[in-house]
Amino acid sequence: MLSKLTRGNQVTIPKIIAERAGLKVGRDYVDVEYAGGVIYLKPVDIEERIPKEDLEKLRKKALEQESGDITLTAKDAADFLSRRVKKR
Question: Is 43 helix (H, G, I), strand (E, B) or coil?
């Protein structure tokens, strides 16, 4: 099947090929190699570095407010950042 190389060096994998390989958009990765004039794409499994349970605990902890935390509205934060940028 014919596929075009874009300006960003991206190639679209035709839907039928992606389905045959079991690839899911945004979830799967491929290893890219070049040998003997041929570009090879090999589906690979990427292991999560942080177990899902630990990631969920981290997310929950990050959203908890603790004493000493500073809270700002979105407008206050934007105003603060605008003032910081103007100082430079």
Answer: strand
